[in-house]
Amino acid sequence: MKKILVIAACAAAVLSLSACKNKKAAAAAEDNGVPAYEVVENAQVDLAGFPVDDEGYIVIFDGTSLNGWRGYGKDKVPARWTIEDGCLKFSGTGAGESQSGDGGDIIFAKKFKNFEMKFDWKISKGGNSGVFYLAREVTTKKDDGTVQYEPIYISSPEYQILDNANHPDAKLGKDGNRQSASLYDMIPANPQNQNPFEEWNTGSIMVYQGTVVHGQNGENVLEYHLWTPKWTEMLQDSKFSQEKWPLAFELLNNLGGDAHEGYIGFQDHGNDVWYRNIRIKILD
After folding, report:
1. What is the rounded distance in angstroms from the CA atom of residue 57 to the CA atom of residue 93?
2. Which of 206, 205, 159 minimizes the C-alpha distance to 185?
3. Which is the CATH superfamily of the domain at 33-282?
């Protein structure tokens, strides 16, 4: 009985210490303007059931099944994401980021850390989409106490998918850093070698021990390094700065959390977009 009491007392002390730490962390976050938030941990898929191609890439979309995919913050794939002629297609609403009830961003339900991802994409005239990586599912509470999912792009870098010739976002940002294959609102793709709308492009994203490389149509178009002073500086110069968007800055500056891992995702930006040949190689 004495042993049980001692164990219980120790457990209570640990919980009390943990609670104190959480309160201090919450207070520190509030001091920085960051609202209380939670990173949701949902079940992940087993990669053992997915085929591996001749180059050692795991095929996470083979053109016939949406196995392993679901909506961000949801338990199934939204109806506007379908399979068409072997492609993963989003059928747009023309309403930008408003994301109707049968739309929304999607993720592959497995967290990756060090990897190389390859995919093909094409976009409709004037279209906009994006590829997310190292994303986390994050919730906050509204004033009435209800829980809401925050946008995926405040916890994830974005490989921009855009019709450069016809979407106005191509002329916004700085030095073309909102054009296709760019690190959205931070680093422009160089060279900008996009094929026109409704023509296929190849894309690639490599993440290895903090180094990130974007590729487009067979060329590496940008490189940057996560979790460095330079990464923090880039965030501060973007729409995700600590002043403009404290929660986004907090999440992106600590991208992937302590484990430095997260989900692959595709964006519903209201326009028709197609993806195919989506495959990933784990580099751990």
Report:
1. 33
2. 159
3. Exo-inulinase; domain 1 (2.60.120.560)
